[in-house]
Amino acid sequence: MPVVAQVGQRELLLAVQDGVITRQQAQALWARWASLASAVPQAPQPATVAPASGPRFSFTNTLYYFGGMVAIGAMSLFMRLSWDAFGAWGLMLLSAAYLLACLKVADHLKSRHLPIPAGILATLAVVLVPLLVWCFQHGMGWWPPGGPVSYSAYHTQINWRWLTLEFVTLAAGVVMLWRYRLPFMVMPIAITLWYLSMDVAHGLMVQGEHWDFYFMRDVTLVFGIATVAIALWVDARSRQAHEAEWRQDYAFWLYIFGTLMFWGGLSWRDSDSELGKAVYCLINLVLVFAGAAIGRRVFTVFGGLGVASYLGYLSYRVFGDSLGFAFVLTLLGLGVVALGIWWQRHEDDINAYFAAWLPAGLRPRQDL
């Protein structure tokens, strides 16, 4: 007897990612089924909300994110100004109350299928964790002497004394992320990894309290590589997950800050060797094609900036102060624009070509 199965967009998406059918075939099938279904009266079905595969900046979402950022900034300012009024223990209790309230509201919003505002509230809870640790350390008298005297310095000063705040924030953030499964919560975790790279370098420096730019640059580069590796692992796991909640784009923020650390540390090396500069260009070319292969434009953007800077350097070296330099630089800029137009027109084909060489877990996410 014939077997009846329900097939939706998600099943077609999985078939595309597994290489069973192409994206164009999936779109054609879905369009045909939709046209056939529209001709048949259907009974009303309960609405379902599929989790977003990644951040989408519609007007509504922009309002959500803007309001969330304002709330996070206002909360940090309020807590800083409350130090004199409440002291360490009072501010810790107040922060804990705000944290629990944010998680409670996040639970409520998530139950009403509002994942973005729920994620913003849960993110605010993660942001309050380092403040809790700061208050606890000061209340117990465990804050190392000689460190910053204000919590606001956490976001502006590089100091090894912040390491306890960062490690606890990472642990708490991972636990809360596992509990709520909202991708925006990865943002403070990724930022904390960025802070951690600088503070670890500060703690490892032989001079202790002095700034060693080159050492911190190299540590940042290593942390960037490690963060990108974690992002790749998270990305592969989420793409192959069976539950819809785990198929969301949890690697987005890790890719952004990991690439920022890696590319920044690489670009700050400023090699005097022509071979070193050529290798720098080659690495950036690899970033461009890697971004195309796995569908991560952050790689392509930073790689393109690196290649453009190297080409600009070559133009200046060849033409120097001659009038031809301005002409060549103009042609270079127009060439980059033309390349962008060509890339946009053939982006799907480029992604498909490079994705064919990758395991299924790292192929670009497809939206039907």
Give an overview in words.
With 368 residues, the protein is mainly α. It has a domain at 271-368. It is built from 13 helices and no strands. The longest helix is centred in the last third of the chain and has 33 residues, at 323-355. It is flat and about 60 Å long. The two termini are 32 Å apart. Mean pLDDT is 81; it is low at 43-53. It comes from Rhodoferax ferrireducens. This is DUF2157 domain-containing protein. Keywords: Membrane, Transmembrane, Transmembrane helix.
Index terms:
mainly alpha, 368 residues, 70% helix, 13 helices
Q: Which residues form runs of ≥5 with pLDDT under 50?
A: 43-53
Distance between the termini: 32 Å
**Mean pLDDT over all positions:** 81
Q: Sheet with the most strands?
A: none
Class by alpha and beta content: mainly alpha
Transmembrane segments: 63-81, 87-106, 118-140, 185-207, 219-238, 250-269, 275-293, 298-316, 322-343
Protein name: DUF2157 domain-containing protein
Organism: Rhodoferax ferrireducens
Keywords: Membrane, Transmembrane, Transmembrane helix
